[in-house]
Amino acid sequence: MATTETEVAANSQAADAAEQVVKATSRKSKSIIDQVLGLLSSVRFGVTMLILLLICCMIGMLIMQVNVEGFDEYYQKLTPAQRQVYGALGFFDIYKASYFYLLLAVTGLNIVLASIDRFPTAWQYIAKPKLSASPNFIKAQMFNTETMMGMPAKAAAERIHAAWAKDASDRVRQLLGWCLVVQVIANVIVVVIVVKGWGPLWMVYAELGVWLALLAATLLWKLKRWPRRPVRISEENNRITVFAQRNTWNRLGAYVVHVALLTIFIGGFLTNRLGSGGQMEIRPGMRPASTFTTTEMALDGPQVSQASLPFAIECTDLQQKLVRPEGGLDAGNTIDWLSFIRIRDGGKMEDQLVHLNNVGSYRGYRFFQSAFQPMGYARQITVRFEPIAGGEARDVTIGRDDSVDVPGIGRVAFADFYPDFDEKTGENGSGDFNRPVALLQVPGGDGKPRAAMAFSPSLADEIYRRAAEKGGEDQLLVAGNKVILKHFEKVALGHILTIQYDPGRLPFYYGSVLLIMALMSVFLFSHQRMWAVVEQDGKGSKVYFGGNVNRNKPAFEGRFNTLVQSVIGGRSQQ
User: Fold this and answer.
1) Which residues is 143 bridged to in the sheet?
2) 426 shares a domain with 339
3) What's the rounded Cα separation, in Å, for the pair 286 and 314?
4) What percent of the chain has pLDDT over 90?
5) Closest to 108 in 3D by CA, of 166, 193, 181, 50
6) Which contiguous run of DSSP H or E holds residue 125?
7) Across-strand partners of 339?
8) CB-based contact 188:563 (threshold 8 Å)
9) pTM of the model
10) How many domains, the chain?
11) d(CA 380, CA 398)
12) Mean of the pLDDT values across residues 492-500?
């Protein structure tokens, strides 16, 4: 039914001759600026730039970069010639090399100029589709056929219009149906994510908005209020043309790809030039900090410096969830490390929780749970006061850097904690919980605060026994009470936060998603156009069918045949 043809030979030869004349004339009239702009906007030049960028990225993958862990060992294994050549060419930090930025800039310029040069032509397909055609035009299309219909030209055109409009309507109905099915599945997934606490509540509202938009679109289509004109009829020169098209927006897919690439380039540039990262030690009781330590690897070794934050970070609490509470703080015995921080930005304060599966963020800065100090500490302690003269013992729980009122004693504060107390030095012997001791601050006999020790039960028996033998037990007592460290919650002395400022992160993500969607739209869809030119022929009419597509020609051939058969059945004249 369908025949594949190029343009008519005579027209093709005339066009070639005219093109040669135009080219000859343009060569004479082009200035140097026009030639440079023509080169910069050419597709071949753009592909060349992309290949050069790809080569640079491959070099960055094959040669270890200076900011990658283990670079020192890698650098020592290289030969002196390799070190000199790679260093001179900037291969050890290629993504910050001046020529890499230049390649990005020139490639971006090529994309912009190519879009400006070719966009008007692509826009004509949308703004001014070819509504009137001739038999010669039909013969020059990719697919064409002709047939006779035993009815007047207007009746034949109306029949073609009705058949093609029904096909377009069926496809819209199928598309809306699939969109609604996908949306139902997406709603279920979003609800599960929010209920489980894996995502914010605004995701539900966003899904609800999309759902309402789809329902509104379906309702408009059902009420025939949908602003669509998939099939149009025009009359000119005693002939009627029926025109139909689909996926017109596909003509603009290449320019969406251009926008996506530019967005990715801008994101990479912002990250390389303005991004920073480092570490900050946090500990409850420390003053709010607005600086963090950065380490930049260079050929002569690491360069340590300080970077400033536009706000301050204060640690309010630390917690460590252990598999076995009686075990140590090692990673094998830890489920999670939790850092409770408070952001102080002028008069504004914001509390955040940073742990292994939750990244904090504020004003473009992100905070990751990185490490912990190996020195053990206590998040809170439970202390028992046992009267030596007999009576009921009292248990009190005191949080880190906190204090409580104890009847008969006064205000008792948690001052410090020693996980492995050395009696000779009065300091820690190690960071493990071998001989835990809590340092308290209690009221003295004269009303002034004094230090007191709370020993673990086993250590307390030994300490108090030796003190009694030497007659110094009273120095350990607090208002006639033995102080026993009954229980404590294990935690590290401090945590290490990794702070990362990546201004190009969001542009890169948005550009990548846009690029994937644009490429899918470009290659999975195509701009399909159909014409039916109807001419009166006696009491009947002669119809010329033609079709064109910008890509995926084999798939369109079947659709072309289907649309023709929907009008005339199996009758056609090749």
Assistant:
1) 4, 547
2) no
3) 7
4) 47
5) 50
6) helix 98-127
7) 318, 354
8) no
9) 0.68
10) 3
11) 6
12) 93
CA distance readout (Å), 220 to 161, 217, 429: 22, 5, 77
Per-residue pLDDT band at 57 (split at 50, 70, 90)? very high
What is the distance between the alpha carbons of residues 230 and 238, in angstroms, rounded to a whole number?
A: 23
Q: Same domain for 417 and 499? A: no
Could you tell me what percent of the chain has a pLDDT over 70?
90
Pick the last residue of a domain from 492, 523, 544.
Answer: 492
Q: Is residue 290 part of a domain?
A: yes
Whether residue 159 lies inside any domain: the answer is: no
Q: Is residue 41 part of a domain?
A: yes
Q: Could you report how far apart the first and last alpha carbons of the chain are, in Å? A: 7
Cα 18 to Cα 2: distance, rounded to the nearest angstrom: 30
Tokens of 398: 């005191």
Q: Report the C-alpha gap between 533 and 521 in whole angstroms.
A: 30
Please state, rounded to an integer, the average pLDDT across all residues of the chain.
85
For residues 361 and 279, state if they share a domain.
yes
In a 3-state reduction of DSSP, which class is residue 204?
helix
My answer on whether 354 and 503 are in the same domain is yes
**Domain finish residue from 121, 142, 172:** 121
- Residue 308 main-chain phi, psi, to 5 deg: -100, 150
> Helices 253-274 and 98-127: crossing angle, nearest 10°?
160
Query: Quick one: average pLDDT of 209-217?
Result: 77
How crowded is the C-beta side of 262, counted as CA atoms within 13 Å? 15
Helical (H) or strand (E) element with 434: none
| Sequence-ordered strand ranges (E) for 168-275 | 231-236, 239-246
Question: Is residue 328 domain-shared with residue 475, that is, in the same domain?
Answer: no
Is the pLDDT confidence value at 423 over 50? yes
Q: Report residue 524 as tokens.
A: 């999975």
Residue 402 clears pLDDT 70, i.e. is over it: yes
Name residue, tokens 């995926």. Answer: 552
Residue 128: Cβ within 10 Å count = 8
Closest CA to 403 of 415, 395, 391: 415
Largest CA distance in the chain: 133
Q: Contact at 8 Å (CB) between 343 and 313?
A: yes
Asked if 267 and 273 count as a contact pair (C-beta separation under 8 A), the reply is no
* Residue 339, domain CATH: 2.60.98
Three-state SS sequence of 337-396? EEEEEEEEECCEEEEEEEECCECEEECCEEEEEEEECCCEEEEEEEEEEEECCCCCCEEE
Reply yes or no on whether the pLDDT at 556 is more than 80: yes
Residues 369 and 453 in one domain: no
* Cα 351 to Cα 316: distance, rounded to the nearest angstrom: 9
Domain span including residue 356: 273-373+495-507
Both tokens of 549, joined, read 């597509």
Q: How far apart are CA 543 and CA 160, in angstroms?
A: 10
Are 116 and 45 found together in one domain? yes
Q: At what angle do helices 202-222 and 153-195 cross, to 10 degrees?
A: 160
3-class DSSP assignment, residue 397: strand
In angstroms, the CA 374 to CA 351 distance is 26
Same domain for 460 and 389: yes
Q: What DSSP state is assigned to residue 435?
A: B
Residue 18 lies in a domain: no
Q: How confident is the model at residue 28 (pLDDT cuts 50, 70, 90)?
A: low
